[in-house]
Design brief:
WD40_repeat_dom_sf; repeat; WD40_rpt; WD repeat; Methylamine Dehydrogenase, Chain H
Length: 412
């Protein structure tokens, strides 16, 4: 294969969480990865050799979402305990906690200035907060079911949400209006990603498919059927030419959006792949999931040449199952069901299969790194104290209602 482009390759292999990883994000400088987990912690993985990693006991319940501020000086996390923490990503960092929603928080996201934070929850709402004062600004509340994710577009003027009411909604931040609505018939969206240009959104669907919508034209641009189980996460390469996806089928796919086809099928996980992310320069991507493993890859996509793809695919010696089909669809409609307008025929999947489990990077398992456990120095009550205070408050409310009823009986 002399002279052909380079394939993605596994660079690092980490373990440290004690339960499934739910989300991951690269720091703006690409030197660290933040991961959230069902084990109620957030780990900052330092990608520099022989450097220690930091595990923050951030919450008292599973952590569903994590995000870096644009400058990398703050990390936000959202949890099943209904709170959001904003904290400095260092050993002696300061943190602030606030009760953001009345039900679990599924998603957190900073805007492009780092001054605003977006949170999404099972209470059917999406809320906008001012970071400096931890102050509520406004809410986007047209959803009728749990909100799985909410994200700013690159310039911070629009917000996209995906919800268990089978919708993708686009809101204007300034006016709060819902300006676009795309609906599904068969399965709810699991996650979303904005294209770097800010005019397209990719949606991971529970019916095993990926859709890419043109927001300006209100139309479906591309439909991919490349997984055999629900798609859990998607991420655009910074160039906008490639899409990374993870699925409950345990595979990762890389799509060439210009040609409208899958080009890589990546293995390495032993369960659902819950989270995928590119670094800001696109040189690396990371994957994580139910097996508690974090895999960091060299993307090598800057070397990719579509004209060489079929030649290299034919030469590839991988023998993994590639029975999943893919389809490209130009649509004039504004959404619809998972099968809306798609062809039922399955095209041949020529994607190159990569399984790194026999590689030295996978076998090494980064045994030399250390995970340092840190308790955050909170600027507010700790999680258990907050829960205790809320319990006392509820008891006082109940006593007050009983006293009011007794007073009414006394005057009768």
């Amino acid at each position: 294969m002399q002279g052909l482009f380079c394939d993605p390759s596994l660079e690092r292999h980490f373990t440290g969480h004690t339960s499934a990883i739910t989300q991951l994000r690269f720091s703006p400088d690409g030197h660290q990865i933040a991961s959230s987990s069902m084990d109620s912690t957030v780990i900052l993985w330092n990608l520099k050799q022989a450097a220690r990693c930091i595990r923050f006991g951030a919450h008292c319940s599973p952590v569903y979402g994590v995000a870096w501020s644009p400058k990398g000086n703050l990390v936000a996390s959202g949890s099943h305990d209904r709170t959001v923490k904003i904290w400095e990503p260092k050993v002696r960092g300061y943190s602030s906690e606030f009760l953001a929603h009345s039900k679990p928080v599924r998603s957190v996201d900073f805007d492009n200035t780092g001054q605003q934070l977006l949170t999404a929850s099972d209470d059917k709402s999406v809320k906008l907060w001012r970071v400096s004062r931890r102050q509520f600004v406004t809410s986007f509340s047209q959803q009728t079911h749990w909100v799985r994710a909410a994200k700013f577009n690159p310039n911070g003027k629009l917000v996209a949400t995906v919800c268990d009411d089978k919708s993708l909604r686009i809101y204007e931040v300034g006016s709060g209006r819902c300006v676009r609505l795309f609906t599904e018939e068969h399965a709810a969206p699991r996650q979303l990603a904005w294209h770097p240009w800010g005019n397209m959104v990719a949606v991971a669907l529970g019916c095993n498919r990926i859709k890419i919508f043109d927001i300006g034209e209100s139309e479906l641009l591309q439909l991919y059927v490349v997984h055999s189980a629900p798609v859990t996460d998607v991420a655009f390469h910074p160039s906008g030419n490639f899409l990374l996806s993870g699925s409950e089928d345990g595979t990762i796919r890389i799509l060439d959006l210009l040609e409208g086809r899958p080009i890589y099928t990546l293995n390495g996980h032993t369960g659902s792949v819950n989270a995928v992310a590119f670094s800001q320069d696109g040189e690396k991507f990371a994957t994580a999931g139910a097996d508690r493993q974090l895999l960091v890859w060299q993307s090598n996509l800057h070397t990719y040449d579509a004209n060489q793809f079929e030649t290299k695919s034919a030469l590839a010696s991988s023998c993994c199952d590639t029975s999943g089909g893919s389809s490209f669809k130009q649509s004039s409609g504004a959404g619809g069901g998972c099968g809306s307008g798609s062809t039922s025929s399955k095209s041949n999947d020529l994607s190159i299969c990569i399984d790194p489990r026999q590689s030295s990077a996978y076998q090494a398992l980064d045994e030399n790194f250390q995970v340092l456990d840190v308790s955050l120095e909170s600027g507010s009550e700790c999680c258990s104290c907050s829960a205790h205070l809320e319990e006392i408050s509820n008891q006082l409310d109940n006593l007050n209602r009983r006293l009011q009823r007794l007073e009414k009986l006394h005057f009768l």
